[in-house]
Amino acid sequence: xxxxxxxxxxxxxxxxxxxxxxxxxxxxxxxxxxxxxxxxxxxxxxxxxxxxxxxxxxxxxxxxxxxxxxxxxxxxxxxxxxxxxxxxxxxxxxxxxxxxxxxxxxxxxxxxxxxxxxxxxxxxxxxxxxxxxxxxxxxxxxxxxxxxxxxxxxxxxxxxxxxxxxxxxxxxxxx
Length: 175
What we know:
The chain contains eight helices and no strands. By secondary structure, the chain is mainly α. The chain has two domains: 4-92, Rna Polymerase Sigma Factor, Chain: A (Orthogonal Bundle), CATH 1.10.1740; 100-174, Arc Repressor Mutant, subunit A (Orthogonal Bundle). The radius of gyration is 29 Å and the shape is elongated.
């Protein structure tokens, strides 16, 4: 079995060549660093299997080759899952609302949009929003009241003051 000092010596002698090997085969330096780190983690776990002398270097190249193959399979799996998710989202994502009300809504501060959306689109109660935001029921009530007032003022400023011009979900939030 290889002790820590022997492993450290093998590491010092092989780190740079293995990093070069990985850099030439990975898309990013970060991926190469991950491959080398996993190579040495595997080598440490299997230190009893590591041959002595120059054979250790060759053995590590073999470990790095298998780690790199696993990395490539993981990248491919990730790419396939990402493509499938994008396709699924494209089929269910509604078209962007380009109405004047939507423009006013998008112009609100993010904190107001989030509160109004949690009420109108997600259908959450004040108590549920308090849980989501990690604050008190009272704080949500006050913030929601202020957000509704700001939204109503912004709607009036945009010339939208008749309830019929506002979609039902946003109308509930604007009042």
